[in-house]
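Backbone-to-sequence.
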C-alpha cells in the first residue's frame, strides 16, 4: 500500500498481484482486489477498475468501499 500512496502504481499492482497469488482467504482477497481496483481508478481505467470491484464484491458482498466506488464510477461515466 505504501507504493500506492506514493503514486507508484505499477509497483503497487505488482505487489497486489503477488499478494493475490499467495493469499487464499476469500475475505482477504476481496480487499486486495479492491485495492487493485483503486489503482485502476486512479489511472482513469474505469472499466478495469469495475472488473476488480465486482470481483471483490463476489468474495465480500458487504464491502462498502467497493459498492461506493462502483456507484461513483457509474455516475461519472453517465455524466461524461
Amino acid at each position: 500500500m505504501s507504493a500506492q500512496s506514493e503514486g507508484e502504481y505499477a509497483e503497487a499492482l505488482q505487489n497486489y498481484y503477488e499478494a493475490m497469488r499467495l493469499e487464499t482467504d476469500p475475505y482477504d482477497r476481496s480487499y486486495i482486489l479492491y485495492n487493485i481496483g483503486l489503482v485502476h481508478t486512479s489511472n482513469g481505467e474505469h472499466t478495469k477498475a469495475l472488473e476488480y470491484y465486482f470481483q471483490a464484491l463476489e468474495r465480500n458482498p458487504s464491502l462498502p468501499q467497493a459498492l461506493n466506488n462502483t456507484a461513483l464510477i457509474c455516475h461519472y461515466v453517465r455524466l461524461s
